[in-house]
Every structure is written in C-alpha cells, then in structure tokens.
C-alpha cells in the first residue's frame, strides 16, 4: 500500500515503516513502541511545565502515560487490512450498512483525543466480510495519531481494495477535544466527514439512502 496522504505505510508481510521519519520500529524490543523513551519524555514535559515529577501524585504518571501510548498507538504496528482477508460468498448484492461503530483516537495536531462513531456502507459483489471485521478495521485505523479526514479515506480505501464492492460510503461523526478544551473552546460541536468510492461517488439516490438509514430506523 502506498499512502501518499502522510499516513502509516503498512505491508502485511514486510517490516512496517512510519511515513513520518522513515525509521523501522525499535528493533530490540518485543513491542516496537519504546516505552522507556516515552517515560523519559513525559518526565521531561512535567518538568518543563513547572511541575515536580517526583511528588507523590506524579511519580507513576510517566509509566502510566507510556503504557497508555503503547496501547492507543499499537495500530502503528498492525495492518488493519488483515481483517478483510477472510470473505464469504453470499447471494446478496444489495446494501450492507454497519452503523455506530464507536472509536476513540488521537488528533495528530494536538495529541488530544477525538472520539465518535463510524458508519460503513458497501454494495458487495457476491462476497462479504464478517460484520465484526468492519469494526476491527476502524479500531486498527483509530489506534494511530490521526486526522478525521484521512481516517475516513483510509477506511474507504481498504474496503474498496480488499472487497472490490460496487460502492463504499464511509461516514464519521466525531467530537474533538482540541475543539472543546483549548483554542476556540466550542463544546457541543461535532465534525462529520464522508468518503465515497465507486457508485456512491455519482449515484446521489444511493448515497441518500445510506445517509437516511444512518439517521433513521432507530
Ligand atoms: Zn486537534
């Protein structure tokens, strides 16, 4: 996969490389995330903001943050494409829509979380993927520093490439804490992004059907 939008470049068999620095993950660790280095960096930040990293409440904070980062950024070292490799033949070429796939990720601009729901629609051509796998794709793509626009496109691209459907429409609705706790401080705003492939790019009726189903039939 050749990601030109600044995302993570992942291959299924080969080593993975981070597109931002071109380095392979830390070679000596069993986990490619360098937890000791994160611990030291968090301690440094605490000192830089004028805190005492050795005071009671903060002593374990660098370790906690390092463990959390290893978890929330684990997607950098896993390829979400594998979840779409096992498909099933079915006699169904109409809409498949998975709504309300909840996710949380980190805005790469501010390193603050944003979270919301992803909705994935596709029109299969005789082959479908297990429904839980779509949620796993969202989860894998969310576990990296992200921007919502790219995340929406990456999900649509993966489904298009692996399932070759007649159309894909991905809708993400998320609340960004970098909008609510800093800067313009606008709680209650949410951001909706869509990414369409195939038939959904041109067929506005098909697109409208998906959008009404996302909001309706509750
Ligand atoms: Zn942000």
Q: For the terminal residues, how far apart are their CA atoms?
A: 37 Å
Strand content: 15-25%
The overall pLDDT, averaged over residues, is 87
Please identify the structural class as seen in this structure: alpha+beta
Strand tally is 7
The spatial strand order of the largest sheet comes to 5-2-3-6-7
Number of helices: 7
Task: List the main descriptive attributes of the protein structure presented here.
single chain; 218 residues; alpha+beta; 5-stranded mixed β-sheet; two-stranded antiparallel ribbon; 7 helices; elongated; disordered N terminus; binds zinc ion
What does this entry look like structurally?
The chain is of the alpha+beta class and 218 residues long. It contains 7 helices and 7 strands. It has helices at residues 35-48, 61-72, 131-142, 148-163, 177-180, 199-202, 204-215; strands at 87-89, 96-107, 112-123, 127-129, 145-146, 167-176, 191-198. A hairpin with a 4-residue loop joins strand 2 (96-107) and strand 3. It is elongated. It binds zinc ion. The site of zinc ion has 6 residues, from loops. Zinc ion binds at residues 107, 109-110, 112, 176, 178.
Write the layout of secondary structure elements.
Blueprint: H1 35-48, H2 61-72, E1 87-89, E2 96-107, E3 112-123, E4 127-129, H3 131-142, E5 145-146, H4 148-163, E6 167-176, H5 177-180, E7 191-198, H6 199-202, H7 204-215
Parallel strand pairs: 2-5
Antiparallel strand pairs: 1-4, 2-3, 3-6, 6-7
Bound molecules: zinc ion (ZN).
Residues 107, 109-110, 112, 176, 178 line the site of zinc ion.
């Amino acid at each position: 996969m050749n990601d030109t939008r600044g995302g993570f470049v992942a291959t299924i068999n080969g080593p993975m490389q981070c597109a931002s620095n071109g380095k392979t993950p830390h070679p000596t660790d069993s986990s490619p995330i360098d937890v000791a280095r994160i611990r030291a960096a968090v301690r440094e930040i605490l000192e830089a903001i004028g805190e005492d990293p050795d005071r009671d409440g903060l002593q374990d904070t660098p370790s906690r943050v390092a463990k959390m980062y290893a978890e929330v950024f684990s997607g950098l070292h896993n390829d979400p494409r594998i979840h779409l490799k096992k498909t099933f033949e079915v006699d169904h070429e109409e809409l498949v829509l998975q709504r309300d796939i909840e996710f949380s990720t980190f805005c790469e601009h501010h390193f603050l979380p944003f979270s919301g729901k992803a909705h994935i629609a596709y029109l299969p051509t005789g082959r479908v993927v297990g429904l839980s796998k779509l949620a796993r794709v969202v989860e894998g793509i969310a576990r990296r520093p992200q921007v919502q626009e790219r995340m929406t496109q990456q999900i649509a691209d993966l489904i298009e490439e692996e399932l070759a459907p007649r159309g894909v429409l991905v809708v993400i609705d998320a609340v960004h804490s970098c909008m609510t706790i800093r800067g313009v401080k606008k709680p209650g705003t949410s951001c909706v992004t869509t990414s369409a492939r195939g038939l959904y790019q041109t067929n506005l009726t098909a697109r409208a059907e998906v959008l009404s189903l996302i909001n309706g039939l509750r």
